[in-house]
């Protein structure tokens, strides 16, 4: 059963143009001499402000698809049916590495299942590191106050204002994931790519994390693509894509 | 792991700084000792020497760049020691007053009363400190300063020599770098033993044998003379102290026939070809009639040592001395070596000690090279540590790439990390090296007391103390090298990290 908010989001998505468009995407990995095909001609549109959930079993290609959308990886080159990953009016498959770096820094936020916080940095530093990457070392000096204020605001919103100087090792799993989400949102991205963000958390904590993401998405008009194998989470999203053996089964 | 890399850099920096400082200090001390015996510049005309040196010295001392000058005669000969050994020795004839003005020779006299123990004589064992010897040592010091000694049998004051403290081999060098005379005995043919006098300045004498040369440099005949010893000196150069004796200038001039002498020449007495000399016995004509003409052959010296005014560049003094010699040679045409021949004979103290300085410089370079190679392994150590760190941080690198960090950005991150570790390691290493070098003698003494480990034994090394000065420019060079070493070691892991596939990095287990 979809919530009212999700229904509103779905309606908005139907009305708007796709922010992200994936066409004829194939991806094969090499494991030694063995070629392992992961994606087989995936097509997908994600509308502005939409929340799309990608469901699938382990090894179905969910994370690979997410990485391709985030410009972390490139699809296979197939001259007979060229792949396309389009973000707004940019064709990502034709962009340089540097341009993809900028794309990730400016337009994308990544959230991972295992948080991936930098253990040597404090909570606040883990969040501001995204700002440092976006503005560079010198630019960060100019924007430092603005970035720190925004990071503090996000952490406050996620109930972590009392944990700013703590190290990740001193936080619970739920708190770490909140920090990871705040880090993903620090540069105000248009698209949040979340790879099983609640997969490592208990049910209650996972729900609270999801609520935090949904609340921010609603306020900021964020587009969300979430990979999960949890049907209950999928039920709350605008649209569900099922991926099996590298192919989309049903939308 | 960063601490390990830092420790590697720190130890490497400290090791090189200590080695360089100690070897550099050793060279500096050696050079200073070499200068002590030569002054700044020497005018050298070996073997036959040159005349009118008083005029030359007067001209030199009249110049504003020259502080003082002193005539010397240098030659080699044989010395017969108290135990009848005969050794080759360098003999220098000096006027002690002017020689001390130029070289500070009087300060090198060893046997003299002292007020406080030398640096390593912590127990105050130096016999020169003992009040009971003060009167004797006062007399001996005076003897050394005047190069004379009173003959205890005749009561006459005689000219005496000052020889290097190591010449006889009978002065025992202590662990704290001092001396006391041994008291060996000698077996006699009649089965008795004879105690040798080894405190040379009291009653000791040596026999000197030299080969005199005529004014053209041809050997005349060997001359032997017994000379009492007024005192012994320690210059700081073992080769000098084990192979040099100073004697009064006029004595050596006489022995070498370099002193002022009447010159007798037979010249033709008449222009009349029929005015001849006839042998009164045989009645044979011997040749044209000759007469004897008597002149003065002036005294000669082989070297004039010059000391410049403090603060004057050495080369400037050398040039000025050469100019003055030119004027001197023009004033004595045909009687002294001309200025052209003297071009290469006006030498600085560095020129005179070049062989010794060069040897120590090469030794220093070699030691530094070896330590440099050893320290270069730090690069590989840092590389291994950083490689391990980069592997450990693979996932973090993947995260940073996911956040938009660029390839050069990741590389720069590691290089900066390497540089930071290099800076901290080098700062601590430089500080550690500085501290060790500054207190190296105290540390060395403590090691000797605590572990019986004596690396710098004054009985083997000629300087009593290990040189303990750190040259700031050397410290700066070592600091920069330490930092670059770390950056170099971090470079390959940095490039490896930067080129890592972000997806593989994120999936790294």
* Spatial strand order of the main sheet of chain B: 3-4-14-7-13-12
Q: Let me know the largest β-sheet of chain A.
A: 6 strands, mixed
What would you report as the Rg of chain B, rounded to the nearest angstrom?
A: 34 Å
Helix content of chain B: 40-55%
Q: Which consecutive residue ranges of chain B, at least 5 long each, have pLDDT under 50?
A: none
Inertia-based shape of chain B: elongated
Task: Give, in order, the helices and strands of chain A.
Answer: HEEEHEEHEHHEHEHEE
β content of chain A, as a range?
25-35%
- Beta-strand segment tally of chain A: 10
In round numbers, the mean pLDDT of chain A is: 85
Q: Major sheet of chain B: size, sense and barrel closure? A: 6 strands, mixed, barrel
Quaternary state of the chains: heterodimer
Low-confidence segments of chain A, ≥5 residues, pLDDT <50?
A: 1-15
Q: Which protein chains are joined by the largest interface, and how many residues does each one contribute?
A: A-B, 23 and 16 residues
Tell me how many strands of chain B there are: 21
In order across it, which strands form the biggest sheet of chain A?
6-7-8-3-9-10
SS field, number of helical segments of chain A = 7
Mean pLDDT of chain B: 84
- Taking the alpha carbons of the first and last residues of chain B, their distance comes to 20 Å
- Secondary-structure class of chain A: alpha/beta
Helix content of chain A: 40-55%
Model description:
Chain A is α/β, with parallel strands linked by helices and 251 residues long. Chain A is built from 7 helices and 10 strands. Chain A has a 6-stranded mixed sheet. In chain A, strands 2-1-4-5 form a 4-stranded antiparallel sheet. In chain A, strand 4 and strand 5 (90-91) form a beta hairpin. The longest helix of chain A is centred in the middle third of the chain and has 35 residues, at 123-157. Chain A is globular. In chain B, a hairpin with a 5-residue loop joins strand 8 (171-173) and strand 9. Chain B starts with a helix and ends with a helix. Chain B has helices at residues 2-36, 53-62, 96-103, 134-146, 200-203, 238-241, 249-256, 314-331, 339-342, 349-352, 354-392, 394-402, 407-438, 440-451, 472-498, 502-506, and strands spanning 41-44, 50-51, 66-80, 86-94, 148-150, 157-159, 161-164, 171-173, 179-181, 185-187, 193-195, 205-213, 219-233, 244-248, 261-268, 276-278, 285-288, 290-297, 300-301, 303-308, 346-348. In chain B, the strands form 7 sheets. Chain B has a 6-stranded mixed β-barrel with strand order 3-4-14-7-13-12, surrounded by 4 helices. Chain B has a two-stranded antiparallel ribbon with strand order 2-19. In chain B, strands 5-6 form a two-stranded antiparallel ribbon. In chain B, helix 1 packs antiparallel against helix 11 (354-392), helix 1 (2-36) packs across helix 13 (407-438) and helix 1 (2-36) runs antiparallel to helix 15. Chain B is of the alpha+beta class. Chain B is 46% helix and 23% strand.
